[in-house]
Amino acid sequence: MPPVVELTAVSRTYGEVTALAGADLTVQRGELLAIVGPSGSGKSTLLNIMGTLGRPTSGTVRIDGHDIGELSDRELSALRAGTIGFVFQAFHLAPGVPAVDSVADGLLYSGRPLRERRSLAEAALHRVGLGHRLHNEPHQLSGGEKQRVAIARAVLGDPPLLLADEPTGALDSRSGAVVMELLHELHAAGTTVVVITHDRDIAASLPREVRIKDGRVEHDSGAPAAPVRDEVVV
Ligand SMILES: Nc1ncnc2c1ncn2[C@@H]1O[C@H](COP(=O)(O)OP(=O)(O)OP(=O)(O)O)[C@@H](O)[C@H]1O
Ligand SMILES: [Mg+2]
């Protein structure tokens, strides 16, 4: 099976600013890893590119074996919808919308009927321990509960890859621990999980830590072994 993510010499500039400067990163299926690094070092840019929300200025991005440089925007959206779930620090839940509908909206473009989407959404909310909060709107939920709703939405279609950008950044340590437990459970159930964090304890508690500095991978505690290639003897 190809790596779920394979970034080779990925650079990204915004005008004069270099956000990524030749980053290499391979993530195998089933991994759980932390991405750490100073503010402005390029972590979110890296995650957005892994999530195909942005394209690199140069370098190669392969997701599940697909070179995204060879895909149209439409094909890329389809790949993203079927492969990747996102969780952000700020939850991104629409005000006034009950949890079950926020989650069901995660499958808006799946072509499934509303009833089926809602019943899947209820199951996902039970899975994150919010079976008793199905009809609460965001203002009726704690921060930790909001993040669990966002996670339920992200994993509704059972994507193999979950990308989380500081998912505990807006939470107190107790709610943050609940969210991390949930990410561990999803990982144990087979999801590949990538977490950006500023929290050293969280980073240290994950099996692999990738440190970003100045738009490059400065240190990788657990880079998987390079694939064995057949040697061609000339
Ligand atoms: N859309 C954009 N337009 C212009 N510059 C950007 C844009 N996005 C990011 N940058 C710049 O690229 C660099 C890397 O940003 P990025 O958001 O990836 O950092 P980060 O490591 O996630 O930081 P933080 O820990 O503060 O979230 C920064 O200098 C930032 O100002
Ligand atoms: Mg960031």
From TrEMBL:
GO terms for molecular function: ATP binding; ATP hydrolysis activity; transmembrane transporter activity. Residues 215-234 are annotated as: Disordered. GO terms for cellular component: membrane protein complex; plasma membrane. It holds the Pfam family ABC_tran. Residues 5-233 form the ABC transporter domain. Keywords: ATP-binding, Nucleotide-binding, Transport. This is ABC transporter ATP-binding protein. It comes from Streptomyces nodosus.
